């Protein structure tokens, strides 16, 4: 008789998590892929292309149209013809994800990097990588945390570095990858994505412990609420959705009545921008990056936090001077054909996605709410649309939601389960995932705008 691996003394790993997300019950996620044939075929294609189906895709499966667009773009950036060599692409993904200590994405791309023949030595740290990649460190850092500080001099430094120079096309490819992985790190933390079983942190050889808790969950405040508390908490939230819908209706009526002056509109923007800097991200405990990840970049202390503490000012970037639609899109399309088109579709998809529902209500026009979320994120980055009334943001986004947005977009590594649970408590998980897609795409577009504007300024 064949002996089982266990009899031979082989240790069998056990999955650590319960499914792809620490925040969303596993059965909800798996339920989707069973029901929706479209989702299933997208999953099959993804598996065929990559030889794996990652947990990010499983969670995005709540929104199959978006997932399709996302996977198409990511596949193109990583695998199809383009200015950069394959191992460079994965290394840049590692560098970008490491800015937020996102070990989930770092480990994924370390595997891919080695698979396409990347030199393992580079994984000891950026200083072991070629000079050309090292020079990208500064751009990576500024884009991830303070993109408004990017100047045409930074761009010039990369394009005129003698034998280590980047070409414009390579630089655009690199910028798109950096912004893609910064924002994907936001999504990963914002949805509580857990490592796959075959990855670091995804399995254990210990037998299941008696208690439900794991030490790190307790440290992060992710313990299980007992249901009694939860029920009490939900009592006062019972009218949350109705209140929000009422406000949307009220704002719609006001819109038709009064037209605020240009100065008043500008003042409302500046007020919201200043206030957004004072929104404190999560519990703000000092979190030291694990040694393992911090070696992928220098200066791990450079982040969003310290700078907002010192009260530095975020300059205003007027969208009419440089917008994605009128400027960014064509620049990307010129230098890295097809990618501009794909990014544009992906932005549109996240921004326009709607099922016309809010929690249990049907036939709701949610465009006002989606716009408030998108514009709030751009406002945190200093980007102003002069036809938008920023007074609407305070009406539609409450404090716990703003804290969640700020944390997920600026310091995603600090997002906790408690924060995810505390905003929009009556909404469904699929709606919260939708919000996370909006946050991720708005962040990516904001970073891209600063990078592309700097490149345009260098070129003109």
UniProtKB/TrEMBL annotation:
Protein origin, superkingdom: Eukaryota
Annotated compartments: Cytoplasm
Family annotation (Gene3D superfamilies): AhpD-like
GO molecular function, one term: L-leucine binding
Keyword Signal: no
Cellular component, GO annotation: cytoplasm; nucleus
Catalytic activity of the protein: a hydroperoxide + L-cysteinyl-[protein] = S-hydroxy-L-cysteinyl-[protein] + an alcohol
PANTHER family cross-referenced by the UniProt entry: P53 REGULATED PA26 NUCLEAR PROTEIN SESTRIN (PTHR12474), SESTRIN-1 (PTHR12474:SF3)
Protein known as: Sestrin 1
Organism in which the protein naturally occurs: Gouania willdenowi
